[in-house]
User: Fold these one by one.
Assistant:
Number 1:
Amino acid sequence: MLKPNFFTENGLERLSEKRGDNNWKNDLLISENAVFLPFWRTKSLIQDSASANCEISLLSYEEISQFNRKDDEFIFLGFRNDTPYFLTDLSDIEDPSQYSSLSGNRSLKDLREVGLSLSREEGGILAYSRALAQWHKTHKFCGRCGGKTESQSAGHVRRCSNCGAEHFPRTDPAVIMLVSYGEKVCLARKSDWPKDRFSVLAGFVEPGETPEGAVIREVKEEVGLAVTNVRYHSAQPWPFPANLMLGYFAEAVSDEISIDDIEIEEAKWVTREDLEPEALAYFENPTSVSIARRLIADWVTKKF
Ligand SMILES: [Zn+2]
């Protein structure tokens, strides 16, 4: 069995069937053990720590009350160890350091900075929170009529106050694929990446397309290779801002690379031996939370 990717575990029981009951949610909000995760712009609250590991900092109802949020601004994430977890966006505050509950021995940090330092479950909680908070921020108006939308179902639906349309949190599928040819893999560098950064190929799934179809099309477009034997590996929620990465392995039918010169600036074949030390080290001490590294490591060590 494959080890889950970062951000896939969060230990939260979502109770989606309960979320439509507003009284249930409001009772939970003021329950003794409810905990609150503030979200500020792209950042979450992290407990300061002298060690390399860090933890989410959770606020009590009393602490979150000083921000005078309305009930519908609290998003129910789920229960974890019998504790209800709520998220609330405080991005409108200009200077969070003025508030004792957002400063002191805690700091606001981006998940990109702290992902590897958190436990897997806490990383998963922040990935889920980040995706939901950003969806709310960018869906305040109805895509059908332009009317104002309101948060409902404990923050998992936005309903248009004008035409009644219901809008649900978005997750945009993207494919990420390791393309091999015998004992080597194709790695590419995007034009806006540093000179020494190479990774596997990736792209969005387009309307009317399957993920496998997107793998074949993207590889052809970006590096000019035809691929076969497209096999699903694993998925990863990627809340930067709202993707679901679908990881694939695919085999090229030739090794003649021809880059598109638009997205990709450079592409090359790298052998298993070249990648081996880095891939083996990855399992001891991951250097990135992304599924890209995981695909490479699993290919090198023939775990998949
Ligand atoms: Zn509308």
Number 2:
Amino acid sequence: MAKYDNSFTDELRQRLSLVDVISRRVPLTKKGQNYWGCCPFHNEKTPSFSVSEEKGFYHCFGCGEHGDIISFVMKNENVDFKTAITELAEMAGLKLPEIKQKSKQQIENEQTYIDITEKASKIYEELLYSESGKHALEYIKNRGFSDEMIKKYRIGYAPKNNIISSTFKYVKKDKLLSTGLVRNGDYGLYDFFRDKLMFPIFNPHNQIVAFSGRSLDGSEPKYINTPDTDLFHKRQTIFGFNFARDAIHCQNRSIIVEGQIDAIQMQCHGFPETVAPLGTSLTEDHIAILCKSNRNITFCFDGDNAGQKAAMRACLLVLPFLRDNSEIKFAFVSGGKDPDEILKNSGEEEMRKIINKSTSLIDFLWNITNKNYLINTPGGRSQAEKFLQDCISKIKDKILQNEIINEYNSRKFNQWHKWKKQTYTPDIELPDVDSMTIKILKSIIQKYPELSEKYIDFLTSLHISFDEEVEPTDLDLKNADNFIISLQIQKSLQELNKQKQEILKKLNESLTQENSDKLKEINNKILEITKKQESLIDIQ
Ligand SMILES: [Zn+2]
């Protein structure tokens, strides 16, 4: 059988949710940590087919069928490995690589790579406690790191000299270069990391594949990472994930902070489910990795403008992953502080308050819309509307998408048009609407917020508060719409009659022989209009 590069099938498993793929064919419901449904491989009425997103496996307790995302597609659609891979790659938006077997050479190269990075890390760790690493140790201790934390995260020091290129002289040049730890210079190889505080970056198998080095002399950039290599892809790597994976499962959520020191401090002080992207920007791959365990993510950003922007970016990235059981939240740390400082100065409880106070995705998007657009002008509302529509269109779950549209429609009615409700002074006094009609209207608006948008001017003229919760109406959309239209016509008819009475009254008061002909003429015209109005009601 043709074999794909393991890293490609791994990537497929990483990018795709097993639950997503299976639930396209089998309805699944979540019970406990797993999802359950009726087995597609044997005939049954009570679900004994369980799917574990965490483990990446499905298992049927009825017939014993068992497998992963690839074998599910193969068995369910009765296709071969290659077809299944092709289909899954398409779903994941990945390009199918050339079929290739991992060569002996490749396996050997990977082993050499890991050996070098592992040994390099040991050298860095030792140097942190040596004379040359004194200032680095002082720095990290000042940041509140204990010896225990330094040991656990294997923090080290890369000296100013070429320690790596000289230590690994015996290794073939290209193999050493492939780790990204050294570079080719005019005078031979030289070290990439120099005078840096070193944080190893682990793959999910707890092997060191790269490093992140922090500058110690105040020079920018603050952090440099190993350039992308065969075994390290910055966009697909989340710092601290290897340590946080179990906690993300147990706590049923992940927290994303901006910096790696923040991530370590959070992990060590009550939030073991915390991770950080490498460098500043979050990618779709990062979200995909986290969403594999569960779709509950709390983003933690600075409260400043840059933090708001970063949060907006994260929001757009996470929208396609949204499911009806996802809990996506945004926490903001204010006052120019980061989680690290909060933990150090105010403690775990203060941080927990900030996390607990976080804003839901729906509220976050709503708040940012109201902040960024002039919603008290028609143009501003139009821009805001387009922005919201654009965001919502990214949600893949159609039912959820509709629910969110309804939610925003009702907010638009109650909040964007509130200023209208408050400042509106009717030109003509409308007769009161009876309580039964009010009740029906409320129940219609509850169910079809889109109608509130459509008839906003008329509805605000009634001076009814729609904030109160009532039972949604039984009417379908068409009839609900008709109800409001006929109410509108009735109201203007009533108003016209009222005006007619007033005119007649005035005319009667000043009735003379000369204007009695004029009066007849006016009266006839009013009768004509009334007839037209009544016939309109009949059409309804
Ligand atoms: Zn079965």
Number 3:
Amino acid sequence: MTEPIIVVGHRNPDNDSISSAVAYAHLKNILDSTQHYAPYRLGPLPPESEYLLNRFNIPIPQILTHVHSRVLDVMTPQPLQVLDTDTMRQAAELLKARAIRTLVVSGKDGLYRGIIDTQTFANLYLAELDEVEPTTATRFTTLARPISDFLVSDVPILEPDDLLSEAREKVLASSLRQAVVLDAARRCVGIVTRTDLARTPRRRVILVDHNEVSQAVNGILEAEVVEVVDHHRIGDIQTHLPIPFINLPLGSTASIVTTEFQRYAVPLEEHPTIAALLLSALLTDTVLLKSPTTTARDRELAALLARAASLDIETFGRELLEARFSGQDGSVESIVLADSKEFVLGDTGFVISQYETIDTERILTKQPEILAFLETMVAQRSLEFALLLVTDITREGSQFIVAGKPQLVEHAFNIRLEGASTWVPGILSRKKQVVPRLLG
Ligand SMILES: [Mn+2]
């Protein structure tokens, strides 16, 4: 079985990274039956993704910790095994019949005991030559004895997930020419020779919703990027060969994946749960089609997906937001720190935190504690100011709460803070609407 092609979104995954990976892997499996495409994720599921995958009975993508080459990528799986109670003759005949050099020896319990190889027999033969008269042919009496008497047990032991680079060092440090690969229960699942270890197979990866090394899975430079589907600026991913690289300025990667379903004439009505997942990602990435990144094409695609999934956009959008916000614990610390970024300004700095909600009033009951928390942050980190944006998606604006010197914020947005706080309509994006005004 060949290793599946990995389809994966960015670090700190959002719903677009999860849903686009699942949907694109699904499409690729329909289009290309010669490979298997498997969706993965680089971190915890956002609550709305968890809700959706459960609701539509879609398997949750596995976590991917790295794409460095591993022992299991080069090992010979399921090596020939003999029992330690078998005779040396049985072992010898097997080695000869299969023209191999090594047999893995296990006990009746199926657990690894050691190996027997052609070198073992060569050594025994030479030893017997010393003991017999020159005129007498060697009888090689050891052949009747059990393998357990002659086990080679100092073979380097590896695990399937060990990094190839580390396995190489371990085996080179040993005098033996091979290593065995054991699973957690100490059953032998593979064998690797020095020749195997000299290979560097590249794991194949399709990037969705990102194309920058800093946002990609660990080990990406060692892997082979075979495709990119993204809606962000062009980053720094490099490849050896030309690849399909689809980058469009649409509101979500899910919009592009939807376009690919259309391009290959795969009817989304026949894949309603995938259509629902794509719609969810389009809606969360565009804040229910309200974000300034939303295009006319996104609106068309949302309508098309809603039809294919038999969903009402308004109702489904509300369900998504409820799922996203039901998991919030509402503590002052989580409100301020969940999404907090520091920016440098001359020789000082400032912090902008953002907290999305559908119930600003409830958050504002905690304003005195929030402000105290922000003031401590300003004092401890010698900041110019700390700004919290309580962004209300349904009201389409943000409550600004500022500790420290508020003048810069007031000036940049032409607002007056009353009691360190004020409502600013239309502000939804820290990246697009807030940071440029404060740094610019
Ligand atoms: Mn996205």
